[in-house]
Amino acid sequence: MTYWAINAVFLGLVAVTAGAALLLRWARTRSTRASSTRASSTHGSLAAVVRAAGLSTAVLLVMTAVFDNVMIGVGLVGYDESRISGAFVGIAPLEDFAYAVAALVLLPSIWTLLGSRSETEAAKAARASRRAGSGSGAGTSTPDAEEAR
Asked: Most exposed among 24, 61, 123, 133, judged by the fewest C-beta atoms under 10 Å?
């Protein structure tokens, strides 16, 4: 078995986890957007998210290149030449970077799947608001009633 075959198994699991996280994120955004205009402002703009992801990717890949080359150079890690593709970044085989890519995708996916307290509280508040709005007298709350809550 080659290192790419091993990577394919891990990257496949990461892709499934990322897909589940994207679906969950889409569902949360859809339900929050239906009940609140605050959703877009609390999660930041897409451009900011892309910049942060790009910076994180660059830093992690550069650090992976540096430290993999050091570890291989001092003999801490070795690779069976018959099981690698032959593509290298320095003396580190390209296959070694799959773990960094997996971490870049898997960690935010798990974070999304587990959810944060604020997202959980926001979802609960949105459900409660929808329930309250579907009853009689919806939209007739007064400032005094708001303060009493």
From this structure: 133
